[in-house]
Amino acid sequence: MKILLASSEVYPYSKTGGLADAVGALGKALAQAGHQVGIVTPLYRGIREAFPGLRRVDWNFDFPLGNQRINAELWALEPAPWLTIYFIHQSGYFDRDGIYGENGADYWDNGARFIFFSKCVTHLARYLPWQPEVINVNDWQTGLVPAMVLHQARTAGWANRPRVCLTIHNLAYQGWFPASAYALANLPADYFRAEGAEHFGKLNCLKAGIAFADILTTVSPRYAREITTQEFGESLDALLRKRQSALVGILNGVDYDEWNPSADPHLTAPYSAAALRGKVIAKAALQKELGLPVEPQTPLFGTITRLVEQKGVDIQIGALEEMLNAGIQFVLLGSGSADYERAWRKLAARFPQQAALRIGYHHALAHRIEAGCDFYLMPSRFEPCGLNQMYSLRYGTVPIVRRTGGLDDTVVDAIDNPALANGIKFSEYSAPVLARAIRKALVLYADAELLRHYQQNGMAADFSWSRVVGQYLTAFTNHI
Ligand code: ADP
Ligand code: GLC
Fold it and tell me: What is the pLDDT of residues 283-307, one digit of tens each?
């Protein structure tokens, strides 16, 4: 099959979260399976320097954006057979320090930036010589592509248009803009209606995608069910219920080329389920790196996250207030809201011998935390899929997660299945209940044999992307 993926971030070229990992790895896995794949993404600052193989393609974009005209260049890279990454080079929009914003504030012109990007995606899909059969757009940033494709097919003679699949990675980010921003799409008023791009009088890019895509996927089966309810539907549940027959939940995979403790360039000693000594070394090295007492017997908990409400920061701080007194160590790597950063700083200052805080984005440190910790905490309020709990499983780091979304679909608690248990799950969103889950972890930690059983189960779990590819192909073809 011939597939064009479109995303505002793609690992290893750009990344703020799991979206980048998921799209980069899905593209790679589809190409490895012999499909022709293109991934289109903006050319952000620094990409050309980091990937000198990028080449300019003889192709220019020149579109109206409302009543302006905007130009862009096309650059490309072929990192693997059957896989081409297309970069949209529009320096005014994308050659900036951040991807979506700086210093905690979104860029004021994100509407224009991503509507323009969506036009480029639509144009490429239409004119690429290899004629994609499916366009897989991701999240609100490309949410207007389905309407653009539909419109051109209806009015501009685009025969045999490709099907459009929208993958929802996170329903909480919808791309809301003032109604006036709709003019930037240069689409007729028709699409700006209550079952289209309009929502409470504003432009809602994700809603437009949900309304006009042929196929809808999201990143775990449980989240696919959750988002059709009022509790998780973020005001789009009614529309999602209407489109339920087009919606399927496909669990993300893990790129084991990237996240594999037996061949991780960021670790000094590799390890595997059969030989866990490297994990002991990784723990001591991490404690040292973080300035924590190097104590092999002290259980070390970790979290790597965007500091946003979704991730359960408030209950995590509450639970750790209590549990740091119980002689555990904890490391947080994260960045995001200034308020949350301040709250974490306050906690870490009170427990300097036990809590280490690293504010910022550090790729290599993220790997060392996955390897060096005994437990990984992920108490999300909601979680469409979640990748770090799956990375933790592979690194023999027992995840403690809330029973929601993809966390529930990937972690096995002893209550569900003692033979296959690989983590600890809790349900109620509260600090005391999370603290209780941490206490369970301490009981597990004290039982070396049982802990090993959990680790072995986790390390044996297989979330390879090659297993996921077939599910995407089924979703793409069932609706063609
Ligand atoms: P989300 O996409 O909601 O942020 P995921 O669990 O799907 O959550 O993916 C998060 C990804 O981003 C993981 O690969 C994680 O390691 C990475 N990540 C998040 N914050 C940081 C950080 N501060 N430093 C390094 N990596 C981070
Ligand atoms: C989103 C979600 C996360 C998911 C990721 C990749 O950012 O918050 O749960 O794993 O996308 O699909």
Answer: 999 999 999 999 999 999 999 999 9
The domain at 261-460 falls in which architecture?
Answer: 3-Layer(aba) Sandwich (3.40)
Q: Looking at ligand 2, which residue's alpha carbon is closest to its atom 1?
A: 169
Where in the chain are the domains? 2-253+465-478, 261-460
Q: Ligand 2: distance of its center to the CA of 242 in Å?
A: 23
Q: Is the CB of 468 under 6 A from ligand 2?
A: no
Domains 2-253+465-478 and 261-460 in one fold: yes
Does 21 contact ligand 1 (Cβ within 6 A)? yes
453: helix, coil or strand? helix
Q: Is 378 in the pocket of ligand 1 (CB under 6 A)?
A: no
Distance 133 CA to ligand 1 centre (A): 31
List all residues 6 or more positions away from 236 whose beta carbon is below 8 Å from its beta carbon.
171, 174, 199, 206, 207, 210, 227
Distance of alpha carbon 24 from alpha carbon 334, whole angstroms: 22
With a 6 Å cutoff on the Cβ, whether 386 touches ligand 2 is yes
Residue 16 Cα to ligand 2 midpoint, Å, equals 11
Report the C-alpha gap between 410 and 223 in whole angstroms: 12
Q: Is the CB of 429 under 6 A from ligand 1?
A: no
Please state the CATH superfamily assignment of the domain spanning residues 2-253+465-478 in this structure: Glycogen Phosphorylase B; (3.40.50.2000)
Measured CA to CA, the distance from residue 267 to residue 279 in angstroms comes to 9
Mean of the per-residue pLDDT values of the chain: 97
Q: What is the pLDDT of residues 336-377, one digit of tens each?
A: 999 999 999 999 999 999 999 999 999 999 999 999 999 999
